[in-house]
Design brief:
The protein contains one helix and six strands; from the N terminus they run αββββββ. With 90 residues, the protein is of the alpha+beta class. It has a three-stranded antiparallel beta sheet with strand order 1-2-5, with no helix packed on it. A three-stranded antiparallel beta sheet has the order 4-3-6, with no helix packed on it.
């Protein structure tokens, strides 16, 4: 009986580890995304490239920005309306 309980615990622990590893990837999608308070651009690349994005800002001029691999904070979610890659590297 103890062996069966140990096996069940091992299976549940393994499933928990898979779930925990899957969550961070889902939290940072590629491209523009917002949380409840902040706006980000996540440049997903494996080559280390830097790209130019255009950032759309509420009640202010839009601007271009050079971003590297990974997540870049763009500002508060209530001020940033979006961002997209403009087909240029920097």
């Amino acid at each position: 009986m103890t062996g069966a309980l140990g096996s069940a615990a091992l299976v549940l622990t393994s499933l928990g580890a898979v779930t925990a590893q899957a969550s961070p990837a889902a939290a940072d999608p590629c491209g523009f995304y917002e949380t409840s308070s902040d706006a980000y651009y996540n440049h997903c690349t494996s080559d280390g490239s830097r790209v130019v994005i255009q950032v759309r800002v509420a009640q202010a001029p839009d601007y271009e920005r050079c971003v590297g691999p990974g997540r870049t904070w763009l500002g508060p979610a209530d001020k940033i309306q979006g961002a997209h890659y403009v087909n240029r590297t920097c």
